[in-house]
Predict the 3D structure of the following.
Amino acid sequence: MGSALDPHRVLLNDGNYLPIFGLGTSSTDKPVKGETVEAVKIAIEMGYRHFDGALMYGNEDEVGEAIRAKIADRTVKREDVFYTSKVWMTYLSPTLVQKALEKTLKDVQLDYIDLYLVHWPMGLKPSENELFPSDASGKILMDDVDFRETWKVMESCKEAGLVRSIGVSNFNRAQLEMVLKMPNLKYKPVCNQVECHPYFNQNKLLKYCQHNNIVLVGYSPLGKLNYSKFVSPEKPILLNDPELKKIGDKLHKSVAQVVLRYQVQRGVVVIPKSFNQGRMKQNMAIFDFELTNEEMKTINGLNKSIRYVTLEQKGSGPKCP
Ligand code: NAP
């Protein structure tokens, strides 16, 4: 049942715990059928207990199938597994939030979601059928929904027991403040999931979140190698960084392990995606070594404010994982 990763959890501001290390499940634009099921099953066998998903990724049914299979064969119990999902940008209007959640619950076929996030602070034209509603010219249609209205429904989803914890993603400080200052706020976001790696270390946002007892979850912690078409070729490749390589060589660890360790050591939850058995194993082996203060400082100094994930992709409007 247990896993070597079990002790590595962070306490959330609502009293629940979030494993500090998990598996990202956003694979590609069009996930290969069956690939996610196999990867998540293997991950659970290896000891992964935290899975980061979203309605937008189009493979929640497979994540759920794998979790249910591993519960059925008694590898884990439901309460051993932590599943995060996210309400997509076309569902932010208060009448649609619960519909998004119901779709996710139906796809994963679990009784509850451990953590439910507002995927982005801005809305797209409300739709249950299209992820990127567009006009005749292909222009993506935005919506001026106020995410504080979305948040009120998130709170009622928690109260209904459909989700255990609620949080946000891709919120900047001003947007977080807007939620925190809501009159009659019932629950603070437990976390803010944002892009975070040594080239975009989010030091200021991390400080702000820590000050407000909000956990920072870092996505694309390896520099997002997955969607090469979303990554501008002119951006430097994080895993090729010579300073990181030097640190890794000294410690006999890969650059991926160094950048993941850097995050957990500063209290950032990481969710690297890999569907490759060898790399999944490598990524979780970050709890048997420590970076020195000097090495942490060197890594902090690599910040270049490089964001790999942007809403504008090749001029085609919002497209993001
Ligand atoms: P990432 O985890 O930084 O990188 C994933 C890529 O790195 C994949 O191509 C993977 O390929 C490769 N990889 C994994 N381990 C490796 C290793 N040890 N050495 C070399 N390459 C390795 O990027 P990401 O998938 O964008 O981010 C992780 C997760 O964060 C996503 O899956 C998703 O759950 C979440 N996310 C959330 C948002 C949001 O808006 N909230 C946005 C982006 C991502 P293989 O599979 O072939 O190993």
Notes: The radius of gyration is 19 Å. The CA atoms of residues 83 and 130 lie 24 Å apart. Confidence is low (pLDDT under 50) at residues 313-320. The first strand starts at residue 9 and ends at 11.
